[in-house]
Write a structure and sequence with these properties.
With 460 residues, this protein is mainly beta.
């Protein structure tokens, strides 16, 4: 604990070279356009109104999978609490925040070698007190094969999709789930306004097929789309990224396995109402996100890798920008910036609004290559944006050995937070009420503002 107590948010002078010079060309971005972007950044912008939501309720924060909250992040952060897993939880996979709960998904013991009903404890879920990190409840579906998928909250329901799709009570957990049976793995995405929960079923085992499915917020089944049959344990979705917006569900998907496939690898738009295909574009697409106005996704083709901005209704390109490497992590979108972390660990920020949208690189940097997780098509997150923090918003990069804070629009380093390597590799940053929560495979750490004098006096 000494390392955690020694320092709060430290100025990253040793990372002064983290951000590349704004006039260096990168992968097709011209020096002249980059100078123009720097000049544009000097112009006065309307003040951003910070709005706390008190939650980070799903992978990517919202239905658009933007990895951005309109809330703030404390200017001074110190380790607030640490939670460490204990058997039967074997590995912490992901976290989200809802109200006074930090919700943790883990894989359990006897993973892959137990039958349903045996004490396999997959997935294994924790509900933690957001203020203290104390365990409020723990619960397991007790299925035999967890791979560490994502969670999502809507109302009082905590949805999971790891060897079964179901939900438990957010505040209390529960002795049993109220959802469906085994053999579903993948992402969950909730659009509360549309009343739709979408999940991927990425592995053909005892389920009928791989597919994308839509459910009501009450868990009632609505539709099935992009379904493909195949051989048991052999056919799967090798990659599937989900988001929602503009009345559509956007799915970037790739299939693998020996069986013939009905669909081609590509980016698809499904109608929220019935799951029917509105449009599709074949190709090697990466992670997808949507800001309500446009869809953002990287396409890899014979000419290279380019970030594409598409209109939601028809998939027509508005602009594209060369980014050099493929990007399976969904783009992070906030304050008119599109931030990418490539599969090789390069950080790129591209303006997504205004006259310079897609025409200039705002800044670039470097981090470790993103972790891929242990599961089928499930990847961990690296980025989180607090749009209401500071003058330009704050970007958190939690990846591997470090947790860093950057100025969102300029990429300049703001500080590095202390991370205990005994907790595993840092991943899945989540921001709520000015605090930051990050997990590793062995534990969860919460950073918050230091207590004021009144709080210290009460503690005494």
């Amino acid at each position: 604990m000494n390392k955690l107590d020694q320092s709060s948010l430290r100025i990253m002078r040793k990372f002064a070279g983290f951000v590349a010079c704004a006039v260096c060309a990168l992968n097709g971005f011209g020096a002249a356009s980059m100078v123009a972007a720097a000049e544009t950044a000097k112009a006065e912008e309307p003040a951003f109104e910070s709005r706390e939501s008190g939650e980070w309720p799903q992978y990517g924060y919202d239905a658009g999978c933007r990895f951005a909250t309109p809330g703030s992040l404390a200017s001074v952060l110190k380790p607030k609490w640490v939670f460490k897993r204990a058997p039967p939880a074997a590995r912490i996979a992901s976290i989200i925040i809802h109200g006074d709960r930090v919700l943790v998904e883990c894989t359990g013991d006897q993973n892959g070698d137990a039958k349903i009903g045996d004490p396999a404890n997959n997935p294994y879920l924790y509900g933690l007190d957001a203020a203290t990190g104390a365990k409020a409840w723990e619960w397991s579906h007790k299925h035999d094969m967890g791979i560490g998928c994502t969670l999502a909250v809507s109302g009082t329901k905590l949805f999971y999709n790891d060897d079964g799709f179901g939900w438990v009570d957010v505040e209390k957990g529960g002795g049993n789930d109220f959802g469906s049976s085994a053999d579903s793995w993948g992402y969950i995405n909730v659009d509360a306004k549309a009343g739709l929960v979408v999940k991927s079923n990425t592995w053909r085992v005892d389920n009928p097929e791989t597919s994308i499915e839509g459910f009501g917020l009450d868990g009632s089944h609505r539709w099935t789309a992009l379904n493909d049959n195949g051989q048991k344990t052999q056919d799967r979705m090798a990659f599937a990224s989900l988001c929602q917006g503009a009345g559509l569900v956007f799915v970037s998907v790739e299939w693998s396995g020996p069986s013939p496939k009905k669909h081609k690898q590509g980016l698809y738009a499904l109608k929220q109402a019935d799951g029917s295909e509105a449009w599709g574009v074949e190709g090697d697409w990466g992670g997808v996100s949507c800001d309500g106005n446009f869809v953002y996704c990287v396409l890899k083709d014979a000419k290279g890798c380019k970030l594409c901005c598409l209109t939601p209704g028809d998939g027509k390109p508005q602009w594209s920008a060369n980014v050099g490497q493929h990007v399976h992590h969904p783009p992070a979108l906030g304050r008119g910036m599109c931030v990418l972390v490539t599969d090789g660990g390069t950080l790129l920020a591209v303006p997504s609004e205004g006259a310079k949208a897609g025409k200039a690189l705002a800044w670039q940097g470097q981090t470790e290559p993103p972790l891929k997780g242990d599961g089928v098509s499930v990847r961990n997150s690296v980025l989180a944006i607090a749009e209401g923090a500071g003058k330009n918003g704050v970007l958190v990069v939690a990846n591997g050995k470090s947790v860093r804070c950057l100025d969102l629009k300029r990429g300049s380093p703001l500080g590095e937070l202390p991370w205990d390597p005994a907790l595993g590799a840092a991943e899945n940053p989540a921001i709520a009420d000015g605090c930051l929560v990050v997990n590793g495979s062995e534990g969860v750490m919460c950073y918050g503002p230091p207590p004021d004098k009144k709080d210290k006096a009460k503690a005494k």
